[in-house]
Structures are given as C-alpha cells and as structure tokens.
Amino acid sequence: MATKKAATKKTTAKRATRARGAAAEPAEHEEEAPPGSTSLVIVESPAKAKTIGKYLGRGYKVRATVGHIMDLPEKKLGVDPEKDFDVTLEPIAGKEKTIAELKAAAKEAREVLIATDPDREGEAIAHHVHQLIAPPARRRSAAASAAPAVPIRRVLFHEITKDAVQRAVAEPRDIDAHKVDAQQARRVLDRLVGYKASPVLWKTVKKGLSAGRVQTVALRLIVEREREIRAFVPVEYWSITAQLEKGGTPFQAKLHHVDGKKPEISNQQQADAILAALRGRDVFPVTEVKRRERRKNPQAPFTTSTLQQEAAKKLGFGSKRTMRLAQDLYEGIELGPEGGVGLITYMRTDSTRVAESAAAAAREHLRTLFGADYLAPDPQLYGTTKQTNAQDAHEGVRPTDPARRPELVRKYLSPDQLKLYELVWKRFMASQMAPAVFDTTTVDFAMDAFTFRATGSVVKFQGFLALYREAREEGDAVALEDEQALPVLDEGERVPVKAIVPQQHFTQPPPRFSEASLVKELERLGIGRPSTYASIISVLADRRYVLLEQRRFFPTPLGESVEKVMVKKFPAIFDVQFTSRMEGDLDRVEGGDVDWRTALREFWEPFKEELHVGDDNLLIAEAYDLSALENERCPEDGGRLVPKAGFFGPFVACENHPKACKYTRPITGERKPPVVTEYLCPECGAPMYLRQGKSGDFLGCSRFPKCRGTRAMPTGVKCPKDGGDISQRRSKARGKIFYGCENYPNCDFVVWDKPVKDVCPECGYEGAEAKSNKTRGNYRKCLKCANEWDVAEEPAAEEPVAV
C-alpha cells in the first residue's frame, strides 16, 4: 500500500512538473510524441481544444466531443418508469466518427483527462466518455475508486488561461457521480413530459406541437401576465406639482399631504378645488429641511442570471445571444502574438464569489486608473446569491485578467464580443470600488392644510459610478443618481412659485415581461436553472408560442391554447411551486442528499395519475371559445355540433359522427375562401390572394399550386430608399418582428417599430415609425429624415400577429 501511494505521488508530481513546464506550442506539434507517452485531454469545444493544446504542448493531445455524445434514443422513450426508471442511452446519430477517434486516441495515451465543462451537463458528458473509452473488461462506474488500465480522471477548467489550465491538469479528480445523476434525472423528467404530454396537444390543439416541463411554466407566467393586463381596469387619479425656482435653478415639489394625510385626488373636480385653495400663492415657505448622506454600494460580479438581465437591458441582447458570446469569450479569443486566451471565467454560475487573487489584481489596476480613494476599504470577495438553490462551484463571471482592458483587446473582438466583454469587465472592476456617496435633501413647504415636498440627490463622491452604472427599464425603481438636484434651501426661506400644475393619471397594468424581467422572475421563483434560461426563452419563440415585439413578450393565440390545455390537464405538474420544488430536488441530488430515482418518483406519480384523468373534448372547449356551437346544428342531419379530439388535431363534428353522419369541419369554423387583392405575384404576375397560414395572414399566388409565389403582408407604407413596399417580417434567429423593404437584398432598409402612413411635418414624407416610451408617450419618427414629433394618445393597438 505504501509503495502504491508513493507511486501515485510520483505520478502526480511528474504531471505537475510537465504541466508547469509545457511549452505553448501549436496543436499540430502534438503528434511528434511517440505512442503511449502522451496524455489525452478531452474537452467539449473544438475552439477550446485549440487554445488548450497551445498551453499544454506536445506532451498532450487535445480532442473535442463537440457537445454530448450519448443521449436517450431519438425515436422511443428510452425510460422505463415501471422498472424504477431504467434508462437506455445510445450514441447520438452522427457522432460515430467522433467516438471512434476518441477511443483510438485513448488506446494510445498513457492517461486520459476529461475536461468537459464544469457543470452538470459537462459532468454527464465526462461520464459518457468514460463509459465509452474504458476497456470493457474493466468498465466500472465513473466514480469507482479502482481505475481502468489507462487512468481516466476528471479535470475542471474554470477559466482558459495558461496558468489556470496547467494548474487544473496537475490537480485531477474523479467524476462527480451525484452531478451525473442530477443531469440524468433532469433529462429523464424532460423526456417523460415531452413523450407523454405532447400527444395531448396533438389531439386537442394541433398536430406536431410539443410540451416542455419548464418551458410550459414559463409560458404560463407570460400568459397569466397577459390576462392580468386584459382584465385590468384603469383607475383615474390626479397629482399636483408646484414648479419652483431659486437662483436660476428650477425644481419640483409635489403635493404630499392634505390635512396630514396622503392626498387621494380621484377626479378633476377635486383637483380644481385644491388649485382654488392655493390660488394667489406666489411663494412657498420652507418649513422643514432634512439633509443626510447616503451611500450606494456597487453590485456584485455577474452570475449567469444577472449577466443575461443586464445584457438585455443595456445592450439589447437576448439570453441566447448573450450566452453564445460569453461562451466565445470563455473558450478563447486569438489575441495576436499572445495567441488564444480565455477572456472571462466560466459563465454558467450562480455564485458571485471572487477569488482573493482576482480581487487583489483588480484593486491594483484600479489604483493605477482611479487612485486609492476610489478603492473599497478591503477586498470585496462577495459570496453566493440569496437563492436557496444557488451553487458555489464557480466564481462569479469576471475577466480572467483585470489588466486586459476592453480597449486593449478591441481589435481582436467582434463588436458584440467587445460589448459583452466590456460589460463583464466594468461590472467586476466596479465591484471592487468604493461606494458612491450622495447628499440627499428633503424639503417640506407647509401652508394651512397643504404640504408640498421636494426631494433630490446630489453626487458627493462618484465612487464606482465613475466606471459603471446599472441599466434600467420600465418597472425598475428610480436610482439615487437619477433624482433631481435641489438648490440650497433653509427653513423660513420663501421660494418663488412659477406654476402649480395638475395632471391626470390612470393606474397602469403590470408591464409585459421583457427578456430581463422574465429571467429575473424565473430566478425569483426557482424555475429552471440560470444556465437553461436562454434555451427556455428560445424554445418558446421558436415554437411560436410567444412573440417578442419592442422587447416585450406577447403570447400568441397558439401559445395561449397550449397553456390552457396543459394547465387544465396537468394542474399539479405545471404548477409554479411544484416545478420550483423539483429544481430543489435536483439540487439535492447533486449534493448527494436525495437519490435521483426518488426525485423522479415524486414527479412521476402525480404526472401518471393526471395522464389518465379528464376528457380531451373538454380540453378543446377550454382551449377555444366554442360557445357558438350551442346554437348550431349539423347541416346534414340537424344533430348537435361538438368538439372532438383527433390524431391530426381537434375538429368539430356532428354528434352522430362517425356512425350515422360524416360531417366535420375545422375547429375555427368553415374554411374561408381566399380573397383577391391588388397585389401581383412576384413569380408570375398573377393576382394574389389573401390567405391564412399557421403564422398569420400572407399573400399567395392565385395560380397555386402551379405557382407557389408568396409575399408577406405589406403595411401600406413605401420604402424611403427605393419606393418598395414595407412588409412585416420575422428574424430567423429569435423570431423577433421587424419591418423591411420587400426588395431585399437589393434594398437593405429595415426598422423595428411598425411603419404608419403619417405625414412628416418637416419634409412631407408619408411614412413614419410608430414609437412609444413611458416618458414621452406616443410619438413618430420620419422614415426619411428621422424627424420626431409627438402625437395624441391612441386607442389600444391590435395584438401582434406572427408572419
């Protein structure tokens, strides 16, 4: 035993020496080493393999799995709930060559180091690789203590830099079986829902639809928010604001109390009565002044969730785009003579923890950039978030080298990569800076029964705000730095009044979810994992369950039907709290506190019971408004018309169908005949019909099927560049609606906001973007000269239609 331990220590020492001394030579030199003298390192990404190969040199071969190599079968369930969830895994189609190459490379290696991503998915891939390359006679569980003939160990790269890679290679460990179990449990849960719940949608909503365990709950949040908005009844209220001025500095004071109580002004008559009582007051006496110093601390470094939220608000990036860019920055960017370098740490993390060495490096660089006064008193190491299911396996998302400022790497990055890197760099560096200090002042003006109050803040010391400010969107609280500045006021002073202005308001419904607010809500409720938010959102958009218009989610009619059916059929499974509890169970599986089969049983039992409960025909009635059927009779035999579920989707049929009557029709009523339009087919010149498709109305050639020419529905506004029709379109990547000239690619004119036929008062062009924001309200922007002008409040717009 002592000899074996000594040999193990000797091997580890050799590996550490070799890793530290390895030359960062190009990967093509790795073949020079004789067979059996190299270590095989297996990663997920070819880009990462290239970077790591340069760091490790010719003593190592680096190969990539290119994602998962094994999964559940593509065309069958692959899980047997009756046999305690026995799982059948098989190589993914198309990965045969990759697997063969990994096996061949493993046979020639002296050791295998599996360095897939340091998360559940990466651990599962590591386990699958181990199962495939271990000699069959000695194949064991990945976590078994006895090693196969060729040592196979696990390596974690939390950042792709030379020192970090060589340090990780020198400190291998075993595969974490609990993480593997947690990933497998999640995969089985998703497969069970997909295979068992989707057929319900086929029969009751539409053939070909699919249900997702977590996606359906996210869809439920969006649909329920839409119902709140539709049911919302605005309530009128008024505010009264005094416009004051001192020494050339204008400021505002709002009516704060009437007879010592908060004012409740519900109509114009009440507002006029207050104005009448205040008439003739041309000065307001200062009756109380309160001053205090307030500090605002910087935010912690990014987690996966906060990175997605801030990138959405500040950069307009969707979650999927953010994670793709972050993956590039993590895996390595070619920095000229320096070669490939990972610019940020691993981007899938729930933790805000910062390594002492990273904090020290940031503080040293900040001392040079801003001076010692701008540093926090001590290194800020932070910790995990307040989420109960937060995992602390990684640090927060930060730059690998704080001295690598964005402007120094600008020429090596794409514009989007630079924007995201700059966001990560500034957020992390700001986290080590001193708090911002504000002088805040509250001034009261009391007159008889009325008290007006003015509040304001002035930045006394910028601190971290000299480098970084958080972005804000509708619904976010006003930041201290955005409050008005007040002149110096003292008690007893009399301040001139310029005007007392009443203003009518109406209570507002809750805002629709943006990508940032949806991610925040999913995290708050414990739905899904931060690393899965991007896929959750993209799946909802790809399936056309939601539309993203002006950065807000609208459920489509299809999405609402899916939500109604799934929640009605599976009330327990698609309950927010139940889904959150399942996420907690998966975390406990990863921690080794809960067996993965136990977690699956907790899900499967209520799900299996709900599968066999309910009437599919009633689900159809739940998904669609079929109240009109009560007054209709079959045109063939006079029988009642009823909804029915079918393999190819729901339909309406005679109650005597199919034995005594064959009458059926689509669920949405008789098919409408195509309507001829003034537009001509771009293919053959024939008139075009207005047709209905699965994504909305479109124009189709009247000679179909001989001619298959189609056009998107024009908006009626002409392109300012070439006079072509502007039509509504949808981006391929995220399904986001935009408007562009139909003569693309010969004309590249596009806008995000809907064009309307309003005439510009500046240049007279007929065509403008219909824009709106909370501060300004509705306004127009000319398509030709970009002139902007305000417009009157409009009636509620129609819901967006997918094209």
How would you describe what is shown here?
The chain has 19 helices and 34 strands. The chain has 803 residues and is an alpha+beta fold. The chain has six domains: 2-175, Rossmann fold (3-Layer(aba) Sandwich), CATH 3.40.50.140; 183-227 and 515-611, Orthogonal Bundle (Topoisomerase I, domain 2); 236-292 and 441-459 and 480-506, Topoisomerase I, domain 3 (Distorted Sandwich), CATH 2.70.20; 304-431, Orthogonal Bundle (Topoisomerase I, domain 4), CATH 1.10.290.10; 624-666, no CATH class; 715-803, no CATH class. The strands form ten sheets. Strands 11-17-9-10-16-15-12 form a seven-stranded antiparallel β-sheet. A hairpin with a 5-residue loop joins strand 4 and strand 5. The radius of gyration is 32 Å and the shape is globular. The chain starts with a helix and ends in a 13-residue tail after the last strand. 35% of the residues are buried.
How big a fraction of the residues is strand? 15-25%
Low-confidence stretches: 1-33, 137-148, 385-392, 793-803
Task: Give the averaged pLDDT, no decimals.
Answer: 85
In the CATH hierarchy, the third-tier topology of the largest domain is known as Rossmann fold
Q: Within the largest sheet, what's the order of strands?
A: 11-17-9-10-16-15-12
How many domains? 6
**Main sheet summary:** 7 strands, antiparallel
The chain-level structural class is alpha+beta
Q: Rg to the nearest angstrom?
A: 32 Å
Net shape: globular
Helix content: 25-40%
Instruction: Return the CATH architecture of the largest domain.
Output: 3-Layer(aba) Sandwich
Quaternary status: single chain
